[in-house]
Amino acid sequence: MGYGRMEQGPLAELLVERFENMPPQLRVAARFVLDHPKDVALMSMREQAHQAGVSHSTMMRLARWLGLEGYEDMRSLYARALRDTGASEPARRGADQGGDPGYSTAGVVADTLAAQVSSLGEYGNASQFIAAADLLARSRNLFGLGSRSGYPVANHFVHIMSFLAGGDRKVTLVGEMGGHGLDALQGAGRGDVLLAVGMSPYERTTIDVARQSARQGVGVVAITDSSVSPLARIARETIIVTANSQSFFRSMAPAFAAVEILAALTAAQSEVNAAERVRQSEEQLAAFGIYWKPPR
C-alpha cells in the first residue's frame, strides 16, 4: 500500500513503519508527531502532549520506542530539520501593525492555503501523484467516493475525469446525495480504480466501502490527511493533504487541488485529447441551452 511522503519530519518513515505495532496511546502520540512536525520542533513536550491528548510520559515513551534516549532528542532532530529547510508558517501581521483585523485574517488564511497547495508540488508529493496518476490512466473504470466534506471533492474528481472517459470506460460517483449508490461497485473488480476521499474524523461508510472494494481487487487511491489514516492503510496509492486551516473549519482546498493535479497528470499519460473532449462537451451543452447568454 502506498503512503504519502509529504514533509512529515525526519522520523516519518520510522513512525509509519512501526505504527501498527504501537500500543493505542503511543499511536495517538505518533500521529501527532506525523501530522504536526513543526510543532514538535517549536513546542515544549508538555504542550505537545496536551495538544495530542496524551500524557507527557507517553511522549517520552514514544521517543524511547523509536530508539532515542529522550524526547528532547526528538525535538532536536525536528528543530534541525526545520532550520535546514527554512520552513516557516506564512502569516501577514497587519493587525499587529495597527491594520484592519479583517485584512490580517484574509491574508493569513490565503497565505496558509497557498503554502499548503504549493507543498503538493514538492518532490516527495509529486512522486506519489505520478504513481497514482499511472494507476488511474491504466484503469478500466473509475469511481469516486466521499462523504460529508469529502463528497464535493469526489464529485469534482468524477466531473473532470469524465472528460477522459471513452468507449466502454465509465466514471461513476458512488455514495450519498447525487451518486449512484454503493451498488454501483458490485461489479467492480481488478482493473478498476476507486478514488476515496476522507479526512479526520473519518466516515465509517467511506472506510468500509474502500476496504470492500480493495477486497474485490479494485485499486484504491486515497486522498486523506495522514499517512496513518485508515484510508492510507487500505489504499494502493495515497495522496496526503493537510486539512488544517487558520480558521474554525477544516479546509478542503488542498484536496480539491490534489484532484486537479491528478487529473492533469492522468490526462498527460492517457492517449485521450482531454482539451478536445472539453471543447466538444461545452459545445453540446451550449446547444442544449445550458449556458446563460446575455440578452440581445
TrEMBL record:
Keywords: DNA-binding, Transcription, Transcription regulation. Pfam families: HTH_6, SIS. The keyword Transcription regulation applies. InterPro entries: Homeodomain-like_sf, HTH_RpiR, RpiR-like, RpiR-like_SIS, SIS_dom, SIS_dom_sf, WH-like_DNA-bd_sf. Coiled coil: none annotated. Residues 9-85 form the HTH rpiR-type domain. Residues 132-272 form the SIS domain. PROSITE patterns: HTH_RPIR, SIS. SUPFAM superfamilies: Homeodomain-like, SIS domain. This is Transcriptional regulators.
